[in-house]
Amino acid sequence: MKKIFGMIASGLFAGVSVATAQADEMTAWRLFVSDHSEPKVTAVDAVKREVIDTFQVKAPAALYRSSSGAAVFAVQRDGNVVSTISTGIAFDDHGDHRDLDVEAPRLTGAEIAGGYPVHFVEHHGQFAVFFDKEGAARIFGERDALNGKATSREVSSGAPHHGVAVAFGGHDLVSVPDLQEPSNLPVGIGVLDRVGAELGTVAECPDLHGEAASGNILAFACSTGLLVVTYGKVAPEIRHLPYADGLPDGKATTLLGGRGLQYFLGNYGPDKVVLIDPTAEADAFRLVELATRRVHFAVDPVRARFAYVFTEDGQLHQLDVVRGEMLASLKLTDPYSMDGPWSDSRPRVAVAGDNIVVTDPLQSKLHLVDAASFTKAVEIAVEGRPFTIVAVGGSGQTHEGKETHAHHHGDGQIYKGYFEDSQISDRPLSDYAGDWQSVYPYLQDGTLDPVWMHKAENGETSAEHYKAYYEAGYRTDVERITIEDGTVTFYRAGKASAGRYAYDGYEILTYEKGNRGVRFIFRKTGGDSDAPQFIQFSDHKIAPEKADHYHLYWGDDRAELLKELSNWPTYYPASLSAGDIVAEMLAH
Question: Cβ contacts of residue 355 below 8 Å, gap of 6+?
Fold first, then answer.
């Protein structure tokens, strides 16, 4: 096992804007807690340490939060429905800082109904809930759910079973039932395109149970090891990561994905957890022994090095996932024996900013633990038997004048097209140096579909309309471009055409919405005859800076090119995978 897991860039807050005179810093954290016996969800202000509201649902629920924190979903197996709660916390990322809007939480009215919902999975903004009694999943977006709409599409596995589905780029990953005995756990994962056609063969995964994502990697737990899923050029790539021969008998059936560090944390037998490096070729699994049986565990999204395990003796343990050892233990509750039915009420763990929160169903309270000192902080009373818990929140700026606020966002507003002429500077061709790939093939094969769904959740039209708009914009037969030492090489179906280019100034364009763009123009000074006379770059930057992606216009008439606004072939570094590109686009 590598001693340090691969790092993923992450950060909850990017600093304070220079416009501090018009902005106040604010921190808000909310806890959403289901009751073990009653059909209700309680919202708690973790900063003020008081109950905000209680929401009646149809049956006792398991809770899941969206990655944005804007929604919590109450999955009610016995109620045959998933209900949507707006958390009332919303962030707007502006690059150099983010804004925070806080309002009252509420049930939105959006419900996804079906027979016995259990596994609920979010991947890149798409939510899939699997209905065991139907053998089908319904997939939907956050924006519709927050707006009270229950719009979804259905994916069938072929037979009722205890299954799972994940929307993965332009494809769906769906568990394959044991057709001889559907009551058994699934036997593998199938890959479907968006019309439901099967692609390739089933990836075998006996006794499939448990899934999670960490960074750009998705994993499913099997009795033989893990299925590790990554984005491929055409379809998802799936490989089997087998358990090492030296491991004792056992398997993981629950997985959590690391945040900030790329790893997976799973259960392994009743008194162990396992740390998994999905990129390792050998020694990928590290077992951590526990003194007593495990009740629940959680990863820390803020302090990436740590995870927490609660055991039946009432202790919370701090796990260093890099060293693979427990650093501290803290007695919080009376014992909660793991003898008896699995469905008995037992504590659950969540992380809320600077606090770790543990539910205590038998004492009707929440225990807050200071994450920095790993000491008890406070208790919050919650009526009933508080059971599953999720936390949403963070820090951001609040503004009194949102109308004028938009023009004080520095680089974030430059990206959106709001800047002064004095901020523009000439740029060299070296800003665009590198090996670049067109994103058009990813649009064609459906890989970018999560991007259109995300835009629809936050925009004013449908995912289909966004896809059609970008289809016209991205369309090109130049699949690759390389730029080095003043030479630009275009590749069409593998055939190269190159030209040498010199800087020819920039032009400012004003668009219908009132925002603006800058085209940095280069003129051909030599090279192949079929290389264009002019190339014009637009990359949302207006001064010398290395491009992370760009839109490129090319042709033989400089003035006519400036009129082209509907077709803007777009290029990202060739080193990025399809999943990396999806993640980059979702960030904007």
Answer: 29, 46, 368, 369, 370, 371, 377
